[in-house]
User: Fold this.
Amino acid sequence: MLERVAVDVAVGVLIDPDGRFLITSRPAGKVYAGHWEFPGGKIEPGESIEAALQRELHEELGITIGAAQPWKTTLHDYPHARVRLHFCKVFDWRGEFEMREAQQMAWQGLPVALAPLLPGTLPVLAWLAEERGFLGATH
Assistant:
């Protein structure tokens, strides 16, 4: 059996001054449509993680981000693809949020009150809980 090549994806964990984080729904027509996730997208050949995240968040959300702080990387196998998720924390952005793919957005704390969550999102909630000393279910 051939091993699937991982697709590299830049993912933004946008955190507001109150410590809430942004999650968005996957738009209609995409795999896992309606599932909630942290926003981002594929890294193009020759593109850095930060450049990909800047491009994707502008294309999807209409914002311009400041510095993206590399945080954690995971490898996740979905039925349709193997993805290497490069999570970056983002505390600075400009512009008004525009849902350019007709997706939804929500600022959340722990536990997240929305469902269903994309499986690749769950480790991030655990990391945030650990950093914040949050005990209990994350979603």
Summary: Residues 7-132 form a domain with the Nucleoside Triphosphate Pyrophosphohydrolase fold (CATH 3.90.79.10). DSSP finds two helices and nine strands in the chain. Helices lie at 49-61, 122-132.
